[in-house]
Design brief:
Elements: E1 20-32, E2 35-41, E3 57-64, E4 67-74, E5 83-89, H1 95-102, E6 109-113, E7 141-147, H2 151-164, E8 169-176, H3 185-194, E9 199-205, H4 221-230, E10 239-245, H5 246-258, E11 266-272, E12 295-302, E13 305-312, H6 319-324, E14 343-348, E15 351-353, H7 361-365, E16 368-370, E17 374-376, E18 380-384
Parallel strand pairs: 7-8, 7-10, 8-9, 10-11, 12-18
Antiparallel strand pairs: 1-2, 1-6, 2-5, 3-4, 3-6, 12-13, 14-16, 14-18, 15-17
């Protein structure tokens, strides 16, 4: 499968080292039978570590049954100091999401990584945590296509841009199985009531019959083309936001490209890659190096300190997996090439990156890699997490 590479260059995220801090859950609110919104209280002394741009995510870390688990979740509220809100939808067989939906409660403490991610508008925010300062000019038009929990970063972006300018228009196509699965149903209705002439909402339900056949059934290429032709202001769109499973996002990108939409106008984020590979194989896999055998020499810089580890040539070990054996605090979250938390720059040597769903083309050209997806191809490799 060809790895899709994001084309648009986002506004620069805050230059900081991602780090975990223990935060207390202040509220757990039920969204649907299988989804909750979790609010974390951010103490005043840590507010600078949790500034964020609409569309970014945080990684959550906890230990369940003696095993450390990390999961990434998009922030679902417009920027505001003092809190972080994420939505957790139950995944079939998902240990963390099942636990969060069934047992997580106010007063619990989880490790929360500082916000990160490039699924953000190209329009910069002049001051973080002040969405009214979003730099918008003219009659900007935004369109989003989201599926399921893909709504979480999109609703944050929609709330922010609609509030920032009285001339902004936002169109949202939101796909779900049934009405009972729609996350933030009331919040989306409130946006429609607040901005009736500027916010258009199109619910598409795959397992429920709606009045319009166009809004019933799965979104396939034909239905998407009809939606674009009939209800979406394609020619005037300033930015497109696509968020959901790989198949839907890729279909939307291909359809927009075939209609002449410039790649730099399209932002996308994947919640799953559609790949059968298990992320656990990229981080935390036990590997033992034999000093008398053939090994790659991996050197890395993190927080100003240098680490070094030998990786057996036969082990096919990722740089992240190797680094974690000597520095457990090496940053990572999804370990699937999607979130970008494990980003580093190659200083010397060469590597092969298997998947890339997070880095921009210009970042790759500058030598940045996802260490969870990269393996050495030269005897010695040096990477810099601080770059």
């Amino acid at each position: 499968m060809t790895t899709p590479v994001p084309a648009a260059v986002p506004a620069p995220a805050p230059p900081r080292r991602t780090a975990f801090h223990p935060l207390t859950v202040s509220e757990v609110r039920r969204l649907t039978d299988d989804a909750v919104e979790v609010t974390f209280a951010v103490p005043e002394e840590l507010e600078g570590s949790y500034d964020y741009l609409p569309g970014q995510y945080v990684a959550l870390r906890t230990t369940l049954d003696g095993t450390e688990i990390r999961r990434s979740y998009s922030i679902c509220a417009e920027p505001r100091p003092g809190e972080i809100r994420v939505a957790v939808k139950r995944d079939l067989g998902g240990r963390f999401s099942t636990w969060a939906n069934d047992f997580l409660k106010a007063g619990d403490v989880l490790d929360v990584m500082s916000p990160s991610g490039g699924f953000i508008s190209k329009h910069p925010m002049n001051e973080l945590n002040h969405p009214g300062d979003l730099d918008l000019s003219g009659e900007d038009v935004f369109v989003a296509v989201a599926a399921g929990s893909g709504i979480t970063p999109v609703i944050s972006i929609a709330r922010t841009v609609l509030a920032a300018s009285e001339t902004v228009r936002f169109d949202l196509v939101y796909a779900n199985k049934a009405a009972m699965d729609v996350m933030f149903l009331e919040e989306l209705a409130d946006l429609k009531d607040r901005y009736p002439s500027r916010f258009a909402l199109h619910h598409v339900l795959s397992r429920e019959q709606r009045i319009s056949p166009l809004l019933s059934g799965r979104i396939d290429a034909e239905k998407l083309a009809t939606l674009i032709d009939s209800v979406l202001p394609t020619r005037n769109v300033d930015e497109w936001f696509l968020c959901g499973p790989f198949e839907l996002v890729q279909m939307c990108r291909d359809t927009l490209a075939s209609r002449g939409v410039a790649a730099e106008k399209i932002r996308f984020e994947l919640f799953t890659t559609g790949q059968p590979n298990r992320p656990e194989g990229q981080a935390g896999r036990p590997v033992a190096a034999d000093p008398d055998a053939d090994n790659y020499s991996i050197t890395f810089r993190l927080d100003g300190l240098q680490g070094k580890v030998a990786s057996p040539t036969h082990a096919c070990e990722t740089l992240l997996n190797a680094a974690l054996r000597v520095r457990p605090d090496v940053p990572f979250a999804c370990a699937g090439g999607v979130c970008g938390t494990c980003r580093a720059r190659v200083v010397t040597g060469t590597v092969e990156m298997e998947e890339n769903y997070a880095l921009e083309p210009d970042e790759v050209e500058k030598g940045y890699i996802l260490t969870c997806q990269s393996r050495p191809t030269s005897p010695a490799v040096t990477v810099d997490y601080d770059a």
